[in-house]
Recover the amino acids of this structure.
């Protein structure tokens, strides 16, 4: 991975040059700008991973620069330095989403620690800088760049495609993207979830029926295969299709004709079939639950969507994508790190739900780490202890320490704690400490 790039902004030329040398010695690439406006120009022209700026500067100060960066380079961490290290400055800075705050004269260790912390989330997020979109499929990761390239090529053919991937990875979005990029784009895109329709209804849903074909068939009904004529039919959760219906679907695929239930007539169809499954379809074939001949018909080309945890570069990009669709807010750097560190078992669907949850619970502009954690199952923020619990914990830690210093000798421990022996015994009993 390339070195992280830091832009130091300070109108004190000597100070910023010396600081750049110090930061360079930590192994980062550093540039300097002596005015906020010049910093913005550099940010337009080059990629930086972090901005370290002085608060008090002539013309445009550090806060104004930070506001501008937030608007134009969302997510770029900014660390503020000030010689007037007052608490109100620090509070204002962190409330507004500043990644860190350093007081001049700058302590080398504090500088190194702050830069490392602020860059951690950023570096995971920026392995691939370029974002892309393929007909509604948004991505930034290298894996998805390659996949989009493959989709663009296969969209031009008429081949049937099997899309596999965990639930919520974007199989339906992908199917829709293939349709929109294909020559069938002018025709309909029809989707059916084979697992959600009761088995006895699925045949008539797919192939249609004529009036009187079965009890309740009071009029002719067009099936989805015919509705998708000159377009694309997306068969979601294909592994759930009952075996007897698989035979009928195979005939439709082979003969390119469909016969509604109860009808004597077949109609020609021109449909591209895309199917998807979150289960391993080849395993279903081996277990005798899915026909091998149908498998090969549907799987002329296969596409596998990686789980979100396997493409972490997409997490910040998609999180911001969903956020900006809903509200004019942004994530605190620690909130983004929490999103990056989560495993996302429900993939992009879960990410989108979590962002919606965070937006609903955030009144201000900045989404905090605690709000993100509260929205993630099993990641609830640690509850802040009440004063009584805190006192009790302190007392317990204190007694343990005293006992350990006195090697378990209660008389000596009581003396050290400046308590009489019976009081000290009571404390040991209260905390269940054997004596
Ligand atoms: N790359 C992406 N860019 C933008 N939105 C996406 C992307 N991938 C998925 N989504 C969104 O995530 C949600 C789930 O996507 P989709 O329904 O396509 O997943 P799926 O794999 O078909 O899920 P399931 O297996 O549960 O049917 C949708 O709201 C979709 O818009």
């Amino acid at each position: 991975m390339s070195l992280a790039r830091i832009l130091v902004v300070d109108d004190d030329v000597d100070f910023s040059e010396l600081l750049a040398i110090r930061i360079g010695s930590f192994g980062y690439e550093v540039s300097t700008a002596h005015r906020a406006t010049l910093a913005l120009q550099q940010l337009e022209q080059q990629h930086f991973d972090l901005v370290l700026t002085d608060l008090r500067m002539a013309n445009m100060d550090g806060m104004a620069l930070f506001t501008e960066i937030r608007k134009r380079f969302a997510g770029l961490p900014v660390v503020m330095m000030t010689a007037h290290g007052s608490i109100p400055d620090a509070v204002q800075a962190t409330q507004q989403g500043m990644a860190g705050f350093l007081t001049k004269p700058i302590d080398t260790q504090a500088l190194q620690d702050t830069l490392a912390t602020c860059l951690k989330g950023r570096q995971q997020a920026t392995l691939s800088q370029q974002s892309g979109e393929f007909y509604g499929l948004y991505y930034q990761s290298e894996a998805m760049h390659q996949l989009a390239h493959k989709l663009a090529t296969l969209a031009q053919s008429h081949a049937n495609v099997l899309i596999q991937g965990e639930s919520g990875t974007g199989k339906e979005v992908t199917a829709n993207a293939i349709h929109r990029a294909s020559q069938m784009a002018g025709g309909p895109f029809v989707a059916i979830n084979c697992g959600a329709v009761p088995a006895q209804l699925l045949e008539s849903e797919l192939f249609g029926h004529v009036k009187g074909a079965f009890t309740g068939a009071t009029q002719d009904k067009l099936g989805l295969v015919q509705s998708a004529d000159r377009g694309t039919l997306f068969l979601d959760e294909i592994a759930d299709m009952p075996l007897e219906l698989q035979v009928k679907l195979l005939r439709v695929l082979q003969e390119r004709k469909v016969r509604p239930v109860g009808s004597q007539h077949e109609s020609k169809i021109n449909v591209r079939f895309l199917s998807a499954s979150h289960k391993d379809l080849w395993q279903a074939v081996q277990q005798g639950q899915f026909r091998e001949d149908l498998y090969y018909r549907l799987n002329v080309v296969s596409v596998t969507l990686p789980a979100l945890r396997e493409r972490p570069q997409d997490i910040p990009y998609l999180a911001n994508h969903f956020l900006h669709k809903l509200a004019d807010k942004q994530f605190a750097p620690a909130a983004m790190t929490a999103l990056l560190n989560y495993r996302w078992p429900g993939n992009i669907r879960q990410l989108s739900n979590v962002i919606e949850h965070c937006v609903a619970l955030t009144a201000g502009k900045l989404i905090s780490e605690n709000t993100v954690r509260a929205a993630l199952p099993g990641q609830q923020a640690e509850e802040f202890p009440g004063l009584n619990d805190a006192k009790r914990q302190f007392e317990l830690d204190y007694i343990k320490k005293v006992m350990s210093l006195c090697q378990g000798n209660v008389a000596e421990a009581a003396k050290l704690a400046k308590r009489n022996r019976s009081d000290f015994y009571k404390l040991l009993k209260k905390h269940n400490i054997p004596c």
